[in-house]
């Protein structure tokens, strides 16, 4: 790799381990909050090492916050909270080998722009780019594409700082078990400080969005997934039509939308328009079925051709909370039909669409797509509306289909219910016990979903 200069982050001097007593942290939807005893913003490995040492001296647990776009309590702590926002640089680019090394705090948006300047791109992305790369990979964030795996599968190496301040460079050759654990780690193994990613030459996508009756889309689902490089389906509850998004690689020159058209499509219609209808539905829940059908009719069809990262990503200005499950791909249509039946039977006031995406199998120990081609089904609830009754009912459906929850999104599982769903669950537990034997990086959420750290002999401490 060759070293590449990067635009420096903010030069504001910040205390690496202190915060005002009344300061707090909150996630994107505002439903996860904590007030840590210390809030650290290290700018180097040396400062990060000092933060870990001070936390242990104070008897604090340590958690790391990315951009706060997860919906679970993975970040929450009363001890030391670490932000890597000052460690967000591109370190090296090797175009010949298709490798890029970055600090863990860089956001996907910053990374996409930096890669584009070098004629490179990530092979697949989700529809949000505000996450840090470390947070996105640690929670198994994904895009869609029958032949494409989640973002963590694009990792070539992970640099990890352990509780004692030592640095591990993990890859397939150096430590295969820890490598497969670190790609989707939930922040349970240590602090990821840098990552090396496999990238591809920059490419363009021709995106076609348009409606199709939901029943016909489900009948043709396998063909639609196979025919397109990237395929996803949105369905607003109570509407008869689904909205399909089909993205395919193109070698034609990009035809970017103008600023006015972009604002009209992405901000005014998709966000402000949806937000207004959701607020109306929150005030008058009985109107939601009619409003959902109206949204679907207004959506229409569109085609665009642009650089891949500009097509993948859309602004998300309307607040919501979300649950998402990965199930075996062959069960997708049946599971969607069962969710539809649930909504119709119980007349649940749900104004946000159900989102359906597809991901190829990978071998990360805790990846929701571990060992199987998967369909991800996501359900959302608008800001300030009750989510638990709906999410619990959908989760019961996903349980019947051997579902695995997205680690960054709401669910009600525990280590006891999750362990049987992951063939190599115990292998991850062994790596965790080896790298963080004292549980420095544990918190209440990890205790719930992974259980306590096991001692070196395999017994629970």
CATH architecture label of the domain at 204-405: 3-Layer(aba) Sandwich
Overall body shape: globular
Strand order in space, largest sheet: 17-14-16-15-19-20-18-21
How many H/I helical runs?
14
> Which radius of gyration do the C-alpha atoms yield?
22 Å
CATH topology of the domain at 204-405: Vanillyl-alcohol Oxidase, Chain A, domain 3
* β-sheet strand percentage: 15-25%
Query: What proportion of the residues is helical, as a percent range?
Result: 25-40%
Number of strands: 21
Helix/strand structural class: alpha+beta
Span between N and C termini?
Answer: 43 Å
Averaged pLDDT: 92
CATH class term of the domain at 204-405: Alpha Beta
Largest sheet: 8 strands, antiparallel
Low-confidence stretches: 2-22, 457-461
- The CATH homologous superfamily of the domain at 204-405 is termed FAD-linked oxidases, C-terminal domain
Give a structural overview.
It is a single chain. Strand 2 and strand 3 (33-34) form a beta hairpin. Helix 10 (332-346) runs antiparallel to helix 11 (388-400). The chain has an 8-stranded antiparallel sheet with strand order 17-14-16-15-19-20-18-21, sandwiched between helices. Strands 1-7-8-12-10-11 form a 6-stranded antiparallel sheet, covered by helices on one side. The longest helix is centred in the middle third of the chain and has 25 residues, at 259-283. Helix content is 31%, strand content 23%. With 461 residues, it is an alpha+beta fold. It has helices at 45-58, 108-117, 133-138, 176-182, 214-219, 221-227, 259-283, 288-299, 308-312, 332-346, 388-400, 415-418, 425-435, 444-450, and strands at residues 2-3, 25-26, 33-34, 38-40, 62-65, 80-83, 90-94, 99-103, 120-121, 155-161, 167-170, 191-198, 200-201, 204-213, 230-235, 241-250, 302-307, 320-328, 354-359, 374-382, 404-405.
